Amino acid sequence: MGNCCERLGPQKNTYVRVSLPAVCFVWQIAMIILFGVFIRYDEESDAHWAEYRKENNLTDIDNDFYFRYPSFQDVHVMIFVGFGFLMTFLKRYSYGGVGFNFLIASFGLQWALLMQGWFHSLDLTTGKISIGVESLINADFCCAGSLIAFGALLGKVSPVQLMVVTLFGVTLFAVEEYIILNLLHCRDAGGSMVIHCFGGYYGLAISWVLYRPNLHRSKQLHGSNYHSDLFAMIGTLFLWMFWPSFNSAITDHGDGQHRAVINTYIALASSVLTAFALSSMSQRRGKLDMVHIQNATLAGAVAMGTAAEFMITPYGSLIVGFCMGIISTFGYIFVTPFLEKYLKLQDTCGIHNLHAVPGLLGGFIGAIVAATATEEVYSREGLINVFDKEGRFANRTMGTQGGFQAAGTCVSLAFGLVGGAIVGFILKIPIWGDPADDNCFDDEAYWELPEEEEETLPPVLEYNNHMIHKDITETSFSVEQS
User: Fold this and answer.
1) Which of 5, 386, 438, 471 has its CA 20 to 30 A from that of 241?
2) For residues 93 and 458, what is the distance between their CA atoms, to the nearest angstrom?
3) Is the dihedral of CA 311, 317, 320, 321 positive or negative?
């Protein structure tokens, strides 16, 4: 893309005064019209709840709002604060990281309510979609896939391109989610497959198509400083604290939700220790790399998403977190530089190591745990409840269920790679106002900055491991001789 757009010259202008307002206004007006045609309150949020409650012998405390809203709050904070601040590690792109995250999540959740509604809750007799608090949680989940993809593109695309990424990302997410959860009847409460695997490979495929051979011209900005890393760590801590709610938010009330919180909580704790250990081992002086701590400490929760409500056992959760902390940190040290050097894959945030691979492995972990489930461990009613063995799926064996879980993981991978490649070629058309190779990772391209910005810029820290173009032997597991 870089060479092509250099020849075209004027198309590299980052002027978006016309295109960005046009996209925002037109698409928001379209949302207003579509909401007016399709979206209505469900029975628990409608004013007719009083009558519905009396007819069904319910009380206000039975309203799903009181069960789901605490989880919704946590997930909402993760989407806007956790993901947003995690992307502020670049020393001159903090406005873009948190600001564009805010923009595309706000658009994405509206489009997600429509797309998921058409696939999951459209009343064919009235032609209306009923939404409640669980719909809001699912819409946030749907946005998460596009926010993950944003991580691979951070600093290299325009806000208009990000809106396009979100439009197609939410659409693809709704389709693959319907195939995996409804047609294949997979279980994926925390979204290892439908969110992380899809979002990770969707972003990586787009980034691969949009490869910039001259991105080294922005090398001086492709790094962090002390304060930007500290802000990113705030995002990490918000995500780390609330991830048990993320993985349990839409599980069944009772033991499933309880178990999902426990399993995620334990896996997160385990991945922290192994991430710290491997980060220290990878440096000659045993010092820690903030990139590893910001990201690999979360990998256990990503991999636990599918199996969170299963009877994986507490020590099984520890093992998952232990392994994911190692795999994710290893990815930042070795795999990301390898992918950029040999496969021409530029992954700004390292989503390959935090979302794509842990999500893929989490899907297969869920398949193994499902295939080995027995009545002795779950009880007969437990198997029916956890795996929703009802209707045409009542006679499905657990081995078959495990096979479908694995197939669902492959579906999410395929949708991410193929869909991302198609969207990447759309974004390669030189009309979107994306920055030039020497103007990436800089807020000045799209934001008004304070005049004192240059004077108060803190000293630049050493280049982060996953951004360095250096020989792998420099981070070999060796101890400096005294």
Assistant:
1) 386
2) 14
3) positive
Alpha-carbon distance values, 133 to 195, 268, 333, 429, 447 (Å): 19, 27, 41, 39, 35
Q: What is the pLDDT of residues 186-229, one digit of tens each?
A: 999 999 999 999 999 999 999 999 999 999 999 899 999 999 99
CA atoms within 13 A on the CB side of 462: 8
Q: What is the Cα gyration radius of the chain?
A: 23
Tokens of 170: 């939410």
Write out the two tokens for 347. Answer: 């992954």
Q: Are 327 and 295 in contact (CB under 8 A)?
A: no
Other C-beta atoms lying within 10 Å of the C-beta of residue 7: 8
Contact 373, 387 (CB under 8 A): yes
pLDDT in tens, 66-108: 999 999 999 999 999 999 999 999 999 999 999 999 999 999 9
DSSP per-residue letters across 14-62 = ---TTHHHHHHHHHHHHHHHHHHHHEEE-TTTSTTHHHHHHHTT--GGG
pTM for the structure as a whole: 0.91
225 three-class SS: strand
What's the pLDDT score for residue 253?
87
Question: In 239-357, at which residue ranges do the beta strands (DSSP E only) sit?
Answer: none
State the helix-helix crossing angle for 133-153 and 159-177, rounded to 10 degrees: 130
Phi, psi of 362 (to 5 degrees): -60, -35
Which strand (E) or helix (H) includes residue 274? helix 255-281
Start-to-end CA span in the chain (Å): 48
**Residue 333 neighbours by CB under 8 Å, 6+ apart:** 278, 282, 292, 465, 466, 475
Provide CB contacts within 8 A for 341, sequence distance 6+.
469
